[in-house]
Design brief:
Shape: globular
Structural class: alpha/beta
Helix content: 40-55%
Strand content: 15-25%
Strand order of the largest sheet: 3-2-1-4-7-5-8
Number of strands: 9
Length: 260
């Protein structure tokens, strides 16, 4: 099974569109998938909306809800630990990355990559947006570049895009590194990557198709400063941590089918 975790905090009525898109995606896949929506202390009626939809939902579409709000990192950890898949991914509730990208990351893990992360800076990545958002996309690009430089300075990272909201890993990696993580905010992605580096877990970057439909963003200036503080906290915490190297499980090779 492949699990897709989607953290959400007050997504509004748009969550219903995401719900229906997830339901259709799950039904279309030939292999077993599940989706786990984690409601991180939502107070905008999202819980009630999804309760109505869940009554007739596919059993592979689950909702976890708790209160109060704890942050993206806490929500993602909660979802990944509750997931049942051999491969576990997480992405944003607004589905900024299409299902083709989700499947591409899952396929990379299924092909042997312990951890696969979307990279908007990958040479093969594609950016889609209307002309009116060119300035917005440029500002977001600058923010991402600056944040990436700071992250690589403070932490043992090489990825140029640490904050892309689509990442995947094997269940064994999740079970190895998640108990080590403590960052509840947007710095979670950087702490996850730091844990993988410290545990000698290879990280594969995957090209994606990025879509901007509007200027809504959860990473304003206040959030940016908070993320920088989280980077410094992660740096200090991981200097003192002893991390056991990850040992990949030994898997039996698939049986070879003889031609009829």
């Amino acid at each position: 099974m492949i699990s897709l975790v989607l953290p959400a905090y007050n997504p509004g009525a748009a969550v219903e569109q995401t719900w229906h898109a997830l339901r259709d995606f799950l039904r279309s896949r030939p292999e077993p998938w599940e989706a786990v929506i984690v409601l991180d202390g939502c107070t905008d009626g999202t819980v009630e909306r999804l309760q109505k939809l869940q009554s007739a939902a596919d059993h592979r579409l689950r909702v976890i809800s708790y209160s109060p709000n704890r942050g993206k990192g806490y929500a993602v950890r909660t979802g990944l630990q509750a997931a049942r898949g051999d491969i576990r991914l997480f992405t944003d509730i607004d589905l900024a990355y299409g299902f083709d990208d989700v499947v591409r990351v899952a396929d990379e893990v299924a092909s042997g990559a312990p951890v696969a992360v979307a990279s908007r800076t990958h040479p093969e990545s594609i950016l889609q947006l209307p002309a009116k958002l060119l300035g917005y996309a440029y500002r977001r690009k600058l923010q991402s570049v600056l944040f990436g430089r700071v992250a690589r300075t403070l932490l043992p990272l090489r990825q140029t895009d640490t904050q892309a909201g689509l990442k995947g890993m094997t269940a064994e990696v999740a079970e190895h590194v998640l108990p080590l993580l403590t960052c509840d905010g947007f710095g979670f992605d950087c702490e996850l990557l730091t844990a993988c580096v410290r545990a000698d877990i290879p990280i594969t970057e995957v090209p994606v198709r990025v879509r901007y439909d509007d200027e809504v963003s959860t990473t304003g200036s206040r959030t940016g400063f908070k993320m920088l503080r989280e980077l410094w906290t992660i740096r200090r915490a991981w200097k003192r941590k002893n991390v056991a190297a990850f040992v990949p499980p030994v898997r039996e090779p698939a049986p070879v089918r003889k031609a009829a």
